[in-house]
Amino acid sequence: MANKLITIATFPDAVKAQIMRGRLEAEGILAFIADEHTLTNQPFLYMAYGGVRLQVAEQDREQAQAILNTGDSFVVETTPEYLPDQCPNCHSDKVKETTSAAKQSLLTFLRNALTARSHQPVVRRFTCNNCGYKWIIEN
Q1: How many structural domains is the chain composed of?
Q2: C-alpha separations of 5 from 2, 17, 58, 68 in Å
Q3: Together in a domain, 18 and 58
Q4: Of 39, 48, 52, 101, which sits with the fewest C-beta atoms within 10 Å of its C-beta?
């Protein structure tokens, strides 16, 4: 059989297998996932099945394993499409950073004190003087 499928990797869940499948298919290697639905619906069978299996054609084995073994990580772009001092609506540079002048209520203070985390996001509010658009940026 020339098109025999072989398992090149197993994963604890279908999400990781789908990510690797996408990585292989981006390189032009046709990949399949076995036991995805069974283990997603009945995760207690993980030990019996050995995990979700990623399979490729036998002739693609070496190339697929080389792709999976590369240390390349996924890159997430964090640069916004616009600068904070530029309006995302009209791209004007007539932008003013606004802050709320209202005092914090006792309930808001208690909520913030009881749910304090080690890292609170910084929220900046902007208003465009050209078109009136308002937006928030969290850092």
Answers
A1: 2
A2: 9, 16, 6, 17
A3: yes
A4: 101
- Give which of 39, 37, 34, 35 is closest to 56, Cα–Cα: 34
Residues 65, 14, single domain; the answer is yes
Residues 64 and 29: beta-carbon distance below 8 Å: yes
Region 92-121 average pLDDT: 67
Name the band, by pLDDT with cuts 50, 70 and 90, for residue 24: very high
Statement to judge: residues 12 and 57 lie in one domain:
yes
- Cite the DSSP H helix spans in the chain: 14-26, 36-41, 46-49, 61-69, 106-114
Tell me the C-alpha distance between 59 and 37, whole Å. Answer: 26
| Percent of the chain clearing pLDDT 90 (strictly above) | 17
Q: What was the pLDDT predicted at 71? A: 57
In a domain, 48, yes or no: yes
Domain boundaries, position 106: 95-138
Q: Are residues 109 and 60 in the same domain?
A: no
Mark whether 17 and 55 lie in a shared domain: yes
What is the distance between the alpha carbons of residues 52 and 34, in angstroms, rounded to a whole number?
A: 6
